[in-house]
Hints:
Layout: H1 2-11, H2 13-38, E1 42-43, E2 46-47, H3 50-56, H4 59-62, H5 64-70, H6 72-85, H7 87-95, H8 98-127, E3 128-129, H9 133-139, H10 142-145, H11 148-159, H12 164-171, H13 183-206, H14 211-219, H15 224-252, H16 256-262, H17 269-278, H18 282-310, E4 323-324, H19 332-364, E5 365-366, E6 369-370, H20 373-384, H21 392-421, H22 428-435, H23 437-440, H24 443-455, E7 458-460, E8 463-465, H25 469-494, H26 498-506, H27 511-522, H28 524-540, H29 543-548, H30 557-565, H31 569-594
Parallel strand pairs: 3-4
Antiparallel strand pairs: 1-2, 5-6, 7-8
Helix pairs in contact: 2-21, 2-24, 3-18, 5-6, 6-7, 8-13, 8-15, 11-16, 11-19, 11-30, 11-31, 13-15, 13-16, 14-15, 15-18, 17-18, 18-22, 19-31, 20-31, 21-25, 21-28, 21-30, 24-25, 25-28, 26-27, 28-31, 30-31
Amino acid sequence: MSRGLGSRLRSRALPLLAAATALLLVALFYYPVATVLVDAVVVDGELTAAPLAAVLTSEFYLGWVGRLLADPVGFAGYLAGTMLADPLAALWTLQTLGLFGFTAWQALLSTVASVALGLPGAWVLARFEFRGRRTLRSLTILPFILPSVMVAVGFYATFGASGTLNAALAAVGLPRLNLLPSLTAIVVAHAFYNAPLVTRVVAASWEQVDASAVETARALGASPRRAFRDVVAPQLLPAVLMGATLTFVFTFASFPIVLALGGARYATVEVFVYAAVQQLDYHEAAALATLESGVSLTLTALYLRYEQATTSQHRNARKQPRRPLLPASWTPKRTAVRVAVAGYAVVVAAVFLAPLASMVYGSLTVDGQVTLDAYRFLLQRQVSGGQFQVKPLPAVKNSLLFGAGTLVVALPTGVAMAVVTTRRFRGRWAVDALSMAPLAVSGIVVGLGLLRGLVFGVTLFGYRISVAGPVAIVAAHGVAAYPFVVRNVAPQLGRLDRSLVESARALGASRLRAVVDVELPLVWPGVVAGAAFAFAISIGEFDATVVLAEGGGAYTMPVAVERFIGRRLGPATAMGTVLLVVTAASFLVIERVGGGLGGDGDGGGGGGGGAL
């Protein structure tokens, strides 16, 4: 009897694993987010559309669309009269899109900047061979996992009134620039994060372009430019669109970058959600969060559907050979290409290296003089800080503990979901989309949901259930990190030779045994890469943490950096440098323990599936 029960359990292991993972996601993500969305339609226990209607009919939030929804007849009459009397005024009215319009506009600009900065990098990595190419390709993902609040400090240290840029301008007798706060700074900072993502996605697809198709086009008389336009570009377009979609989703819900570099003048929907939470106006926050999440979830679902339709199109293609970046002989054409690459390297250094270098430099200098005053301040705060002041060592300790807890939550959940979503069954696309929802829902919304639903407590079957702030923070970090585990493991599982699994099953292995003994060892580099991502993302998570750590001692390094920004820049740059060292060291330790982050990248990605 027990043997029969065990056999039945093993045969149903994967469905049971999927059910357990789904229940965990419901408890840590869907239920908390649902509590936020319920606040948008329930006030004082009564069902109402008032909070959503207040946002949808607000000219401040939706511009002319809000006026139209509030009074369709009146607005139509106003617009018709204005169009006859003053067409320019009417056009200006139609250009007023409100807070949501500005949020979408800055996300669009950020997407264009990220694609423009990322595509040349993909071209260099995919088409040229040079020493350090594999290492450089691995490093393209590092900006994406760096803590956003630390990057904001780096941009302040570079482009602020007392930053390194103005110091360099003053040294050569040029006037200083006032670049912060500004929309340009927000866009460039977003490109810092997302251009490497575009590079990685497109380079993976470019490496899979069918060389025989290009050779056929050239043999038929097409010029190199025509062959690229007609053969290569159509094969790259899906990867470009997927990278652009992800970038738009991430920048539409961006929070720390906009908060730090934009201020009140350039605030986005996410900043207003946080402000409403701070003012305890949960219904307005929920209404804004509902509309914002609807946009992000729709785009994420479209991305996943498109990815599934295009991810295997180059699997059996013959790769194009790479050209040496430094050839033995030089021609005018080759010289122009190398000059273009050198110019691109200068731009990359200015965008990616300057903020980090400026942050470290700012932590070690005052008015150009080398000093350790900023680090002494952190030590003094640690020794003599008050009970409610942020201290450096507890922040470091909390970040590391929360990172370890995140691995416990995100790694098994992500691996289990990767196994489930790479099986063929009806509705797989819907399951994949639902499992990736945490990628699209902002950390502020998740943090608010955990605060309202779990920290404040919920009554079930007559019992009051609540969790402590640190537990909720680990839950929020696990939710934020687990999609990256899935996106690292699932593509490698999808590319496995299924005959190996079928052979194991033919020899008597159960479905679960085949997964554990055959599939997971073959995709172990992807599992390690997912673990490194999960830990690093936990170390740098700010959005949900700043909501859940309010009023408690569960602050982390990113929260400490944000608190120090309110003082002079030195302590913030010092704490940011500590955060940079801990993040990089943690990432490298996990990578070394696991034996490498998934190979050299020559064939990875599958045109977007391994983008993260």
